Amino acid sequence: MLLNYLKITFAVLQRRKFFTFISLFGISLTLTILVVATAFIDHLIAAGYPEINRDRSLYIWNVKEKDTKNQGQSSGPISFSFINTYVRSLKTPAKIAAVSMPSTINIYLNNHKLNVRYRYTDSNFWEVTSFDFLEGKNYTEQNIANNDYVVVINDYVRDEYVGKGQPAVGKMIEIDNVNYRIIGVVRGCPITRIHVSSDLYFPYNTSKADLKKVELRGNFAAIILPNTPSDIPKIQTEFNVVASKIKLTDTGDKWFKPDKLYVSADSYITSFTRQFKGDGEDDGVGYFFTIVLGIALLFMSLPAINLVNINMSRIMERASEIGIRKAFGASSKTLVMQFVIENIILTLIGGVIAVFLSLGVIYYLNNSNLIAYIDLSFNWKVFSVAIFVSLLFGLLSGVYPAWRMSKLQVVEALKN
Fold it and tell me: Tens digits of per-residue pLDDT, 141-192?
C-alpha cells in the first residue's frame, strides 16, 4: 500500500511542476530559516570553545533587591567583594572564578585606532575555561600577588599589533596610558560567549576601581565549576543558605527600602531566563521556551496557510480522480491517508533541500566574519529539529486539505 502511495505521489509531483516548485520553494525557505535559527540558538546555549564546561558550571552574575511595600526594585551585576565574601565561602566547588563584564576602549596600534573589548579576571578564570594559547601562558595568582601589569591578548589584537602570525609575548603594549607586558596570546572566541569573550584580559589587580569596597552590586560575575555534575544541587543549596544571610542595602532613601533579595547560582541558560522573566523567584525557563516555541509555530503557520491553499487547488483539480476512486470503493480513510502522505513526502523533500541550504548558510556565516569567530554547527540536535519541524509542517499544511477532499461526494467530484 505504501509503495502505491509513493508511486502516486511522484506521479502527481511530476504532473504539475509549477505547483511542485512553489510548494518546495516555500517549504525549503521556511525550514532553512528555522534550522539556521536553531543552530544559532544551540550555539548560544550549548557548551563550546572556550566554555567547554558550561553544561556543568553554575553562574552568579545578577543580584536583585525588591521593596515589596513601595513596589520598587534594583538589580545589577555582583561586585568583586560579593564574590570574595559570599561565593568563595562555599566549600563544595572545585573552582570559583571572577570575571568582569566586558567594556570597550580605544587603543592605538601602528598609527591606527583599534576599538577593543577588555575584562578583568582572577587566575581561576583560566582554569574554569579552556582557551587555546597560541603562544605564552595565562597570568597566575603569583602575578597578581606581585602586582604585575601583564595582559593576555587574542590573535586579532596580536595580528593588528605585531603582524599576522608574528610573536607578541614579551612585548609591551600601551593601553590607557599604562604599559602592560603581553604574557600570552589566545585564539579568540565569538562575542556570543557572553561571559568570556574579549580582546584583552587583565588581572584584577590592574583595575582602577576600588574592588575592596564592600557592596552587593558591581561589575563582576562568578563562574563556579563543581568537582562532578552531581555536586551542582549541593552547591545551589549551599549558596541559597549563604544568600539567605546576606544583609540588604541601606539606601537611605525613604522611597526605596529593600526587604527582599534574590540571587541564585544557576545554570547558564537559567541565569538569563531568570532575568528575562523579571521575577527573582521564578527561573523563567518554561516561560522562555514557551515564547520561543510560540514564535516558531507562528512563523511556520503563515507559510503553512499558503501551502494549504496550494494543496486545496491541487486537490480540487483532481476531483475527477477522487470521484472515480470513490466509485470503485476507495474509502475516505484511504484517500485521506494518501493525500497526507503525499504532503509529508513533499515536505520531507523540501526538508532535504533545506538541510543543504542550511549547510551553505552556516558555512557562509562561519567564514564571512559577520560575527568574528562564530562557530555554528549542524549537529544531531539541529538535524533532529529539522526532521521534526518538517513532519510537523507537513501535517499542518496537509491534514485540512485531505479532510476537505474526503468530504467530496462521488457525483459532485465526477461533475468537476
Answer: 999 999 999 999 999 999 988 888 899 999 999 998 899 999 999 999 999 9
Hey, is 255 helix, strand or coil? coil
Distance CA 392, CA 27 (A): 12
Q: What sections of 244-370 are H helices per DSSP?
A: 268-277, 285-316, 319-327, 332-368
In sequence order, which ranges of 121-253 are alpha helices (DSSP H)? 125-128, 141-145, 155-161, 232-243
The closest of 161, 159, 112, 160 to 134, measured between CA atoms, is 159
User: What 3-state class would DSSP assign to 58?
Assistant: strand
C-alpha grid cell, residue 320: 475527477
Q: Which three three-digit cell numbers place residue 250?
A: 541601606
Partners of 175 in beta bridges: 178
Question: Hunting for cell 552587593 — which residue is that?
Answer: 216
Q: Grid coordinates 506521479 are at which residue?
A: 11
Q: Cα 284–285–286 angle (5° rounding)?
A: 95
Q: Where are the beta strands (DSSP E) in 101-155?
A: 103-109, 112-121, 133-136, 150-154
Using DSSP's 3-state secondary structure scheme, residue 42 falls into: helix
HEC assignment per residue over 195-241: CCCCCEEEEHHHCCCCCCCCCCECCEEEEEECCCHHHHHHHHHHHHH
Helix-then-strand count for the chain, H and E: 13, 13
| Helix, strand, coil share of the chain (percent; to 5) | 50, 20, 30
Residue with cell 606581585: 146
How far, CA to CA in Å, does 313 sit from each of 10, 131, 238, 335, 341?
18, 57, 64, 16, 17
- Euclidean distance between CA atoms 34 and 45, whole angstroms: 16
Q: Does pTM top 0.70 for this prediction?
A: yes
8 A C-beta contact, residue 377 and residue 362: yes
- Higher pLDDT among residues 5 and 127, named by residue: 127
CA–CA separation, 142 vs 123, rounded Å?
A: 9
Q: Is the dihedral of CA 13, 14, 16, 22 positive or negative?
A: positive
